[in-house]
From TrEMBL:
<feature type="domain" description="Oxidoreductase molybdopterin-binding">
    <location>
        <begin position="35"/>
        <end position="179"/>
    </location>
</feature>
<feature type="region of interest" description="Disordered">
    <location>
        <begin position="1"/>
        <end position="21"/>
    </location>
</feature>
<dbReference type="InterPro" id="IPR000572">
    <property type="entry name" value="OxRdtase_Mopterin-bd_dom"/>
</dbReference>
<dbReference type="InterPro" id="IPR036374">
    <property type="entry name" value="OxRdtase_Mopterin-bd_sf"/>
</dbReference>
<protein>
    <submittedName>
        <fullName>DMSO/TMAO reductase YedYZ molybdopterin-dependent catalytic subunit</fullName>
    </submittedName>
</protein>
<dbReference type="Pfam" id="PF00174">
    <property type="entry name" value="Oxidored_molyb"/>
</dbReference>
């Protein structure tokens, strides 16, 4: 029979266990964008899911806010090598948004106000892995960080978490987005350092 000291709780997870290879920790929230920041009036904002069969599901801002909300706390990892731990968001899970959507698609192309796109396997948006977030750290999401709403997919590099999100197009075949056509990795797993094509 083994002896365990009172209060023993096993090995503690420290920041090193949560830091993907090649990343460094930041306390601030760096702002990186490929173009100007879109300003989207909330009375004109909408989010859409377009299926491969041509059906569209739409939500206005008020309808979106009325959906069940979650408050995930996640680590985020930028391809430029910074990592921010324990970021807290509020938003709607993609599981909720896709619940009544009939699809046989395997891929998703996320599109944003301002023209930005990024692609993901549909399975990476399901099972509690992704949200459309409209609040960060208890405050409304600032436009420079993707407000009024952005995608959050924390298990992939942060360019996959599209800012100013407008909709998702469900596809039978993969279709690369903005950074993917410019030489970034098609998937973007920070734990495998999939920064660029060929990584």
């Amino acid at each position: 029979m083994g002896i365990i000291s009172r209060g023993f709780q096993g090995r503690r997870r420290d920041a090193g266990d949560r830091l993907p290879p090649g990343q460094y920790l930041v306390d601030d929230f760096p702002v990186l964008s490929a173009g100007p920041t879109p300003r989207v009036p909330l009375d004109r904002w909408e989010f859409a899911v377009d299926t491969e069969a041509g059906q569209t599901h739409r939500w206005s801002w008020a309808e979106f806010l009325a959906l069940p909300q979650e408050t995930p706390t996640v680590d985020i990892h930028c391809v430029t090598k910074w990592t921010k731990l324990d970021t807290t968001w509020q938003g709607v899970s993609l599981d909720v948004l896709l619940e009544d959507v009939e699809t046989a698609a395997d891929y998703a192309l996320i599109y944003s106000y301002g023209g930005y796109t990024t692609n993901l396997p549909l399975e990476d948006l399901l099972d509690g892995q992704a949200w459309i977030a409209h609040r960060f750290d208890g405050e409304e999401l600032e436009p420079r960080h993707g407000g009024p709403a952005r995608l959050i997919v924390p298990h992939l590099y942060f360019w996959k978490s599209a800012k100013w999100v407008r909709g998702i197009r469900l596809l039978n075949e993969d279709y690369p987005g903005f950074w993917e056509t410019a030489g970034y990795n098609n998937y973007g797993d920070p734990w495998r350092e999939q920064r660029y094509e060929g990584d």
